Amino acid sequence: GSLVITAVDEQITDIMRLAILQTTEALSVSLLSNVRMEDYQKRMQNIFLKDLLTNTFGDLENLLIQAKQLSLEFIEHLNELIVIKPFKIDNNSIFFYHFDNKRQDYYHILENIFESEILVKFGMNQQVILYDNKMASRASITKKLVQLRTEANVIDIPLTICHGNTYLNLSEIHSAYFKASAGIRIIENIYQEPTTKFFNDIETFYYILSQIDSATAQKIVNNVFDPIKDYDSQHEANLEETLDCLIQSNFTTSEVADKLFIHRNTVLQRKNRIEELLQEDSFTSVGQLKLSFAFIVKKLFQL
User: Fold this and answer.
1) H or E element: which one contains 65?
2) Pair 199, 162: CB distance under 8 Å
3) Which of 54, 137, 257, 290 is disulfide-compatible with 264, CB 3.0–4.6 A?
4) Rounded to 5 degrees, what angle do the CA atoms 53, 57, 63 make?
5) CB contact at 8 A, 184 and 126
6) Which pTM value belongs to this model?
7) Could you read off the pLDDT of 73-104 as tens digits, one per residue?
8) pLDDT tens string 163-189
9) Other C-beta atoms within 10 Å of 102: how many?
10) Whole-angstrom distance, CA of residue 288 vs CA of residue 69
11) Mean of the per-residue pLDDT values of the chain
12) Is 50 exposed, middle or buried (0-12, 13-18, 19+ CB in 10 A)?
């Protein structure tokens, strides 16, 4: 590897010293112009902020020194974050390539709308907005999110957005980010459409997700849905679809009939069959609670 530094007329800044130190260690970066130096600074800022969000840290004083060297000393005053993700995209998704082709257009929209906030890019998979709620109200941020969703839809990029809880200091930013990221998964699995939610609105789902392991989740779902799936498989029936719709329709028979385009009596017959298969009064208040909980677990864990 090699390190190339051209002669400069201006005074070496802290960020330049930091860059020289890091490139000396890496032995892989050539610094040839102020323009490239500016781009390099932006990349280093993004790397620093990604590390700040994804890792816990113990030495706040040292962290702030690093932030100052990167011209990010104001991060100490930030106290709100928003996690944004193109709907249902991941590195293995067939939609990833569709979104990747529009990466620059999408980033341009983000940078224009949130020019006064801090934007952290985790590639196309995820972006994070950091801001100070004393400088920008939630109402103004919400307005910007509406604008973002509108402009992203124009280029056919639907978005899932989770507005995290307020954090009191930098030592809590990792936890706030972790919860908001989990919120993205919850929104996509439960609501199954691109939408915006505050973490407070989905916090109950978060605790279910974090307190139940996958094996326990599978058992909860199997206890309710296995008999129904077996019956559907043997008789080409639609009991699981009907039960899912009942749960999502507050167990209102007429609403389910309208949604599934079947007669109300057909819904009643399927409800009776479900009770026979589960061998209990499944549509009492307690029974409905059990069914709803199993349904939520099924959605959260994608079982």
Assistant:
1) helix 60-69
2) yes
3) 257
4) 85
5) yes
6) 0.81
7) 888 888 999 999 988 766 555 555 666 678 88
8) 998 998 888 899 999 999 999 999 999
9) 16
10) 57
11) 86
12) middle
